[in-house]
Inverse folding.
């Protein structure tokens, strides 16, 4: 199933993320003229000359620094290189060859992977002479490109494709849907720790420093039962006032919101030590407005002193605090110790099954008739609401069209009652339900 992998490496600020975004066709990696913006590995799928492969952007390599985050960035880059089939070593043609480039080159000599030396920012012909000094690295012919001006990108992609391993049947398109799972929540609730625990590897950087994760990081994962997931680890979402003055974090929050928009299921992490906060409620609202399935995971449960029915009491409190999302299953776990982490993927899979559930029209209308006979529809101004019939318009989330006599007669409380009755009849745990009201005169039915 896995596609060939191409890793983009180099020292900070040589244009790796700009190139990555150009090739991916959208702004995935955050681009800013500040060293260390990209910290984790960020992936995108690419197709060129009929070959499909994945590309991974890595943080800038500083081989001499003892900084904790920079050392973790080196470790992330090392993992990317270990798993890659081709490595692209990026340098900055405007600055010329630097001692830091030579340090990275010495680091790369240890790998036996196919290696391409890329000289970026070659924006005009006057820089051509800069290429010759790169032969001193002994890494083959340098390839001149300009990511910003999109010069030479096709030549580089062609060189990449010629070095990919031979295509096999595993690269063929798979009809099975890959569940898009976004881990969202406030900073330091354990999103990256949980991602690493689910994957069984150090996929994302973990630190108690707020803002360690900046990009929304995609990782393909296949569970033991064959279910496929794309796990999206997102940046912590702080209150708006806290990010107004820091553009990088503002970009990160926008990426987290975009991750919600493109996911199937959102895993909302809550800190057990603080409980549901105002910011957690706002994030839950984003998930609801996006119409996504959701699972609530209370992390750091190992830090809570337990008494009889502690979990039941806490669950009721979470449901009360998120009453507009009472359909969401609530899990209790510890990403640090691994306690109950095994329950996450099964809950996500169940929520996704409900998210795409379709109810036959006949069965749906039987449930609607039972609901109306149990509780009569409301009256207003001497007129009673009449619901003639219902049909399911779409899935993801389940969306139902109710054909009625007058939209003005549908009270919010009765619509909520119908939602509860549908959930009682068909489940829909973990997914929102949407109703579309459509007026239909009785003579037309």
């Amino acid at each position: 199933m896995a596609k060939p992998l191409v890793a983009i490496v180099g020292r900070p600020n040589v244009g790796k993320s700009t190139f990555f975004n150009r090739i991916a066709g959208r702004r995935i990696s955050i681009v800013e003229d500040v060293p260390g913006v990209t910290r984790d590995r960020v992936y995108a799928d690419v197709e060129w000359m009929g070959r499909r492969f994945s590309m991974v952007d890595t943080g800038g390599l500083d081989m001499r620094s003892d900084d904790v985050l920079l050392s973790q960035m080196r470790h992330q880059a090392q993992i990317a290189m270990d798993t890659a089939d081709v490595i692209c070593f990026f340098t900055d043609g405007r600055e010329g060859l630097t001692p830091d480039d030579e340090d990275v080159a010495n680091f790369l000599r240890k790998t036996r992977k196919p290696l391409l030396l890329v000289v970026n920012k070659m924006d005009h012909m006057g820089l051509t002479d800069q290429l010759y000094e790169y032969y001193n690295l002994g890494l083959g012919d340098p390839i001149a490109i300009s990511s910003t001006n999109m010069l030479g990108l096709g030549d580089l992609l062609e060189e990449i494709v010629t070095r990919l391993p031979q295509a096999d049947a595993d690269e063929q398109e798979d009809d099975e849907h890959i569940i898009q799972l976004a881990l969202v929540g406030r900073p330091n609730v354990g999103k990256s720790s949980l991602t690493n625990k689910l994957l069984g590897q150090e996929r994302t950087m973990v630190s108690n420093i707020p803002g360690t994760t900046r990009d929304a990081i995609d990782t393909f994962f296949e569970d033991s039962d064959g279910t496929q997931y794309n796990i999206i680890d997102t940046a912590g979402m702080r209150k708006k006032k806290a990010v107004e003055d820091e553009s990088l974090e503002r970009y990160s929050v926008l990426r987290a919101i975009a991750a919600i928009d493109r996911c199937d299921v959102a895993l909302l992490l809550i800190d057990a030590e603080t409980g549901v906060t105002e910011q957690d409620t706002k994030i839950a609202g984003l998930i609801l407005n996006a119409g996504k399935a959701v699972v609530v995971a209370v992390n750091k449960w190992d830090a809570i002193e337990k008494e009889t029915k502690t979990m039941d009491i806490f669950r009721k409190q979470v449901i009360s605090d998120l009453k507009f999302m009472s359909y969401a299953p609530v899990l209790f776990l510890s990403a640090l110790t691994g306690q109950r982490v095994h329950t996450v993927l099964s809950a996500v899979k169940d929520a996704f099954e409900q998210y795409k559930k379709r109810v036959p029209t006949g069965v749906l209308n039987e449930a609607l008739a039972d609901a109306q006979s149990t509780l009569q529809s409301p009256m207003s101004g001497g007129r009673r609401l009449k619901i003639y019939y219902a049909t399911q318009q779409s899935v993801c989330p389940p969306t139902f069209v109710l054909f009625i006599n007058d939209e003005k007669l549908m009270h919010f409380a009765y619509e909520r009652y119908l939602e509860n009755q549908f959930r009682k009849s068909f489940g829909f745990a973990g997914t929102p339900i949407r109703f579309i009201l459509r007026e239909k005169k009785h003579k037309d039915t």
